[in-house]
Structure formats: structure tokens, C-alpha cells
Amino acid sequence: MEFVLIDMFSLAMDKMKDLRLEETVIRSELFDVDGVPLAEPIARIWDQVWKFKARPDDVLIATYAKAGTTWTQEIVDMIQQNGDTEKCKRETTYKRHPFLEWYCAEPPSARYSGLELAEAMPSPRTMKTHLPVQLLPPSFLEQNCKIIYVARNAKDNLVSYYHFHRMNKGLPDPGTWEEFVQKFMTGKVPWGSWYDHVKGWWKAKHKHRILYLFYEDMKENPKREIQKIAKFLEKDLSEEVLNKIVHNTSFEVMKENPMANYTKDFEGIMDHSISPFMRKGIVADWKNHFTVAQNKKFDEDYEKKMSDTSLVFRMEL
């Protein structure tokens, strides 16, 4: 009987803890920053983000959210550390590569300021951003920094972003799948329109030091794409180190790596029981989500919005 009472007490305490978290973590509203919806905490510190001072040897990883960012960060870190897996476990991804614009004040246990981390970091720094190119702090282009941009096909990106919203209380409530499809198509999601994002960076690559990669190419032939990144970063890798990087940055290995899978960060904000941060990492998962009607509507809209660019995506491999 005593055991049952203790168990009931611990269950009650857990429930109270969950309730406290629900009270302290309020889902963010979206605020317009120069025509782009951003989470309220980012909008609050926008002046500081815009005035950020990049250094010439900074490396920036830029993506639309859920387009292979963490994967690319791990690849870049492993290249920079010459394949030393222990060095790549020195800290979690969020601390190794500051998320430039992200700011989170509540709850205090999950407080994060990408700006503060970046400013305190010695050179050479590697950072990440989800900002569209027109909102990128001007100093990155003025300093001619190396920028790696990764783009993922719209349908898979949408699916991944929907599940990320479900598990991440730092983002607005996604609503139903149907509602989220509509929000994505109209750009009423954090960091704005996927279409403007991928097209804007595509255009910018002709004038700046930007390596533009595709998620689908990375899945199809990771070794080839890792070699491209290494060449861009001016790093010579032996065949042995290259193979080690391919293995250690595979989805299966990274999913089990607490330094990369976000299980050690943002407790109370990210709920991996709803959907793991590293969910599937595949191409064409959209086929498991879109109805025939949704797919038809999406394709028609996509064709219109992508008619003014040479950019082409593969929706399946």
C-alpha cells in the first residue's frame, strides 16, 4: 500500500510540474519585421540582430527552418575538427554554432541568446540563421563571409515544419494539418515565405560567397556533398576522414547523439514525445501527409510562385 501511495504522490508531482511548464511556456506570437513574420522574442531584439558585427573569417549556415540545418552544422563541425568525433561532442549544437537571431527568455532554465553567444565566441566562429537574405545583418556580406545555404523541397519542408511546430512551444500553435498547409503556402509562418526564402538566397549566390546546396542531393550522395562543403571551407580531407564524417553525420547516428538531437536543450519547450526533433530525415515523406486535393492545390500555387526562377527542386528521389 505504501508503494502505491508514493507512486500516486510522484504522479501528482509530475502533473504539477507539467502544469507549471504549461503556464511558464506561452507559445510565441508572430510579429512583422520588414514584411517577414518573426517570433515575438526575435522582433523584440531585432535592432541588435540587424547591427550584428560579422568578422571576415565567420562561417554562416543559412536555411529555411527544417531544411537540414542541424545535419549541415554537424557536417561543418566535423570538417572543421578533421573528423574528431570527441571534439564535436564538446557542446550541444546550439552552443557550438550560435543560432544568431534566436532569443528565448522563459523559462529561465532554457534561456538562450544567440547574439550573446556569438559575440562572446573567439574566432573563427560558425553560426546559423533562418533569416531570409534581405533580413541578413549587412555585415556578413560586407565582410565577404562564407555562407552555406541548404534548401529542401517545399512539400517535405512543410511536413517537417508542421511536426516541429507541434513539439516546439517556442513557435506558434500550428493548428490542424489543413490549417498549417494554408499558413505555409501564404508565408504566415515564422521566417516567412519558403518561396521568397529559397529564391532570395538563390539570387544572392551570384554576387556573394554562397555555397547553395540541396537537401535531396545530400540524401542521394552525402559523400559528394560533404566534399563540396570541405572544398568551400578550403579543407583537405583524407578518404578515411571523409568516410568517418559520412558515417557520423548519417541520420541514424545523429538521431542517437545527444549533442545533436536536442534532447539536452530546451527542456520544457521541446516535447520529443509529441514528435522527436530528428523525426525521419527522408525525401518524399509528404506523400504520407498530403491528400489528393491538397496536393493539387499546392502544385498549382507552387507553379505560379516558382515561375520567375531557374531554381528547380526534386520532390522525390
Automatic annotation (TrEMBL):
Its main location: cytoplasm. It comes from the Eukaryota. Gene3D superfamilies: P-loop containing nucleotide triphosphate hydrolases. Keywords: Cytoplasm, Transferase. It is an enzyme of class 2 (transferase). GO terms for biological process: 3'-phosphoadenosine 5'-phosphosulfate metabolic process; xenobiotic metabolic process. GO terms for molecular function: 3'-phosphoadenosine 5'-phosphosulfate binding; alcohol sulfotransferase activity; aryl sulfotransferase activity. This is Sulfotransferase. It comes from Taeniopygia guttata (Zebra finch). The gene is LOC100218976.
